[in-house]
Amino acid sequence: MRIVFKTDYMQDIRPWKDRYQLVLYLLLLTLMLAAPFVIDAFYLGELNNVLIWAIAGMGLMVLTGHTGQASLGHAAFLAMGCYTNIILMEQGLPFMLAFPLAGIITGLVGMVIAIPALRLHGIYLAIATMAMSILVDDIIVLTEPWTGGVGGKYAPSVNVFGIMIDRWGTPREFYYLTLGVVVVVTLGYINILRAPLGRSFIAVRDSEVSAQAIGIDVARTKAISFGISCAITGLGGALMGLFAGAFNNETFSVIISIELLMMIVIGGLGSIHGAFFGAIVIGFLPQFLSLSKEWVGSVFGGSNVAIPGLEFGVFGMILIAFILFEPMGLYGRWLKVRTFFELFPFYRKDMFKRQKSYLKTERLR
Q: How far is CA 14 from each of CA 58, 191, 197, 351, rounded to the nearest angstrom?
């Protein structure tokens, strides 16, 4: 059994629990850096896709997982970040300026939208954000001179410190670009949660009435959370556009918003780890289903005919299973397994008993 003895208040808010956990994170980063030299180009592309989904998942996790505001419209901000990045580059702005500006502009637009939207609660907020996602599809078509309309746009190669990076031509360099963005966004996210602003997010999520009672400006906190969430999502959208190579108004449909929400639920709401676990599921599930169909066909005989809706059906069944049997998601299950071994033989099942985290005055919101 491993016990952490705390001798300083800073140990409660530092990014890692102890040196052991820090070493594990450094080992994981080392493995990620070595991945291009170990796996082939196909699986490197799949890993790259997982990292991009993780960025988008962290964007939604800020709003839904840590502030408690449901959103089914984050595909709109993926599209906004993607188109803004490409349009700025077409206007002559270098990628190193266009990319962060795409995130900032998306975040500012998100804050403006949040002012009326966040007056709603629960399912009403989810419906409003879904309507916004559907509306963006039409806006992209109507602003054809800038966005290319139905024809869409093609992502150019990007110049990063004199190195030309293209998803197809230089997959290894593109992977390192994505990994760098993931590390920066993750460290920034961790530090937000350590700051008073992050504590305010969690307070608003747990109880708006209690948060207001201790002096937190709930409306302002929600707006900032929405802005940060949209900014991170915009960065993910910019990378998603570069990764796809070509995109149009149908690329960022409302289905993407639903996938994002399901992803963080399966991964584990309220934790950064949950965004990564969920991204692994949504990134590798299509390949797993494809390989499974080939294996079944080779063993039992038969054709590998594509089954419409199979991916979403399996994903939906996984989501239902987690809601029924493990509401804390993959990360919650991992915590229970890890705690079992850390506290063995003193582990007790009731340690993870679910508790209501809302007040009676908030049940109908």
A: 19, 9, 15, 24
Length of the chain, please?
A: 365
Q: Does residue 351 or residue 220 have the better pLDDT?
A: 220
Question: What letter represents residue 199's amino acid?
Answer: R
Q: What is the pLDDT of residue 282?
A: 86
**CATH number, position 77:** 1.10.3470
**Cα 92 from Cα 254, distance rounded (Å):** 31
- Asked whether residue 201 is assigned to any structural domain, the reply reads yes
Neighbours of 49 (CB within 10 A): 21
Q: Do the domain assignments include residue 270?
A: yes
Task: Give 153's strand partners.
Answer: 247
Q: How far is CA 289 from the centre of its chain?
A: 22
Question: Within a domain: residue 174?
Answer: yes
- The reply to whether 60 falls in a domain is yes
pLDDT digits (tens, 9 = 90+) for 290-343: 777 666 666 666 555 566 666 677 777 888 888 888 888 889 888 888 877 777
Q: Which domain holds residue 331?
A: 39-299+306-352
- Rounded Cα distance, 102 and 86, in Å: 9
- Residue 360 CB neighbour total at 10 angstroms: 8
What's phi and psi for 250, nearest 5 deg? -85, -10
CB-facing half-sphere around the CA of 90: CA atoms within 13 A: 13
Gap between the Cα atoms of 318 and 194, Å rounded? 32
